[in-house]
Amino acid sequence: MTGQANAGRPNQLLRNLNSKIASIPMILTAVVIFLGGTLWTVFYSFTNSKLLPRLNFVGLDQYERLWDAPRWVISIQNLAVYGFFSLIFSLVIGFVLAAMMDQKIRFENAFRTIFLYPFALSFIVTGLVWQWILNPEFGVQSVVRSLGWTSFSFDPLYTPSIVIYGILIAALWQGTGLVMCLMLAGLRGIDEDIWKAARVDGIPMWRTYVQIIIPMMRPVFITTLVIIASGIVRVYDLVVAQTSGGPGIASEVPAKYVYDYMFQAQNLGQGFAASTMMLITVAIIIVPWAYLEFGGRKRG
Amino acid sequence: MADTIAPNPNALDPNASSARLAAGPRGKKPRPVLAPRNIMLYGALIFAAIYYLLPLYVMVVTSLKGMPEIRLGNIFSPPVEITFEPWVKAWSTACTGLNCDGLSRGFWNSVRITIPSTVVSIAIASVNGYALANWRFKGADLFFTILIVGAFIPYQVMIYPIVIVLRELGLYGSLTGLIIVHTIFGMPILTLLFRNYFTSLPEELFKAARVDGAGFWMIYFKIMLPMALPIFVVAMILQITGIWNDFLFGVVFTRPEYYPMTVQLNNIVNSVQGVKEYNVNMAATILTGAVPLFVYFVSGRLFVRGIAAGAVKG
């Protein structure tokens, strides 16, 4: 083999050697961390690891314990409520803002800059600002009361039943600018002639949007949906900053459950089981999307 | 892949929209500025803009007030007596645990984390994207697909295995370890960004260089790198804001003396001991947000392009 390689035609392994060397970090990341790490975590979620990972298999014990834990059930409920409203509101607000921006308005750049700047800020900053604005003693509630409406009550961060909506408000403030940008890009990608045709036919503007433009923007909506959804499953810093999971455990989320069990409660098995559940949640979102998006293309 | 994740960056391009303007007027005849439709449109936009600006305004005014004024007044009122004391205190004397040297420590930690992480991750991803675009080898697509799919896996799933790997390497808790972590998690989006860019360049360019006998690194440094400068800027914006804003990796992979600014900020504001000094908290919050905000306002449209590509990162 070596003789052949020296003779001029390099063997398979040495072809494109530089390219392969340059790809080593990617290959290591993809195989060792993304693939290996994920399998490792799933594998160890069937053990009763505590402080250190140990190969002591207990079957589905960790999962049973997980779903029996009130804190996990609340986390999942919170994620469901937060996820549902977050998807609906960010799509609706993002689209409406984008549609308004697409009316050939003046100062488009200024408006875009204003709507998008929260996205440049971290979730920690976002959470802390809204913690302050929603502060019952000094924030919105006290301001409205001082205007004379003394019975006004708006205290999401200290009311267990609605605390997740307080987090939702902050998340929407931070994230809708991004959705607006993606939607605006989608709107700008739509052929001018569609608008002309609709106008010639005398279709009112709102119907053009609902019946023609939105169906045409399906790919943009789906991509945006996937982006928002995978962000929702990850929500962590925002909750840590805004409420630290409180009051009590009312605003816990799965990502925080994982972190707390892995690094504070020193119950690795629980952390692995919980993170595997997160992985399944993401898979439920991603797999159908990837199938629709790429499965079809390969056949075509 | 690229088209679906980065929905046509040209649509955000200034030239594209001006080209559309040049193509001819769209829509009905121009109406008077004060038509009811315009009043509603601008009214709604201005209302939304006020809502988005309000938190920034509240942050700034709160940070400029003294504590007595905060206790008496309302959070939306401008400061009667402007004081910069909270800013000084937030920067140099606010306490986290036993350390009372303020946010400056976190700021410098964040600088020491962000700069090398940005440089290393971009260097690796750009070479990698170039290899994937122009020097394809067997199996490259498979690894790349795993990498992109991996971008959607929640970080929590991979954190602990990384802790073990770093511990084995003796890097757990160190700055180097954190830089490696940022490089790993920045790789999917950055590689995608560079691969797509290099694929979009005319192939003749590459072929001509090959005919002239240039090799892998020669072509990269002499031809590809100079041509890809705009995309390097986009990648830098993406990485600087992303890494500066990171909280989870900072708290998991470093020791307290290396905590980045976000972690320290959270510790200062959410500490249970002592009287809450809201003005100091807000000054600290602005200070932490200042770097990404600066990058955002300076970079303008490139930022939009970066997030359109980087939205995957979430």
Automatic annotation (TrEMBL), chain A:
GO terms for biological process: transmembrane transport. It is found in: Cell membrane. It is a multi-pass membrane protein. One of its GO terms (cellular component) is plasma membrane. InterPro entries: ABC_transporter_permease (IPR051393), MetI-like (IPR000515), MetI-like_sf (IPR035906). It holds the Pfam family BPD_transp_1. Keywords: Cell membrane, Membrane, Transmembrane, Transmembrane helix, Transport. The chain crosses the membrane at residues 21-46, 79-101, 113-133, 162-187, 208-233, 272-292. It comes from the Bacteria. CDD domains: TM_PBP2. Belongs to the binding-protein-dependent transport system permease family. This is Sugar ABC transporter permease. The lineage of its organism: Bacteria, Pseudomonadati, Pseudomonadota, Alphaproteobacteria, Hyphomicrobiales.
Automatic annotation (TrEMBL), chain B:
The chain crosses the membrane at residues 39-60, 113-133, 142-163, 169-194, 215-238, 282-304. Keywords: Membrane, Transmembrane, Transmembrane helix, Transport. Its main location: membrane. Residues 1-29 are annotated as: Disordered. The keyword Iron does not apply. InterPro entries: MetI-like, MetI-like_sf. GO terms for biological process: transmembrane transport. This is Sugar ABC transporter permease. It comes from Pararhizobium antarcticum.
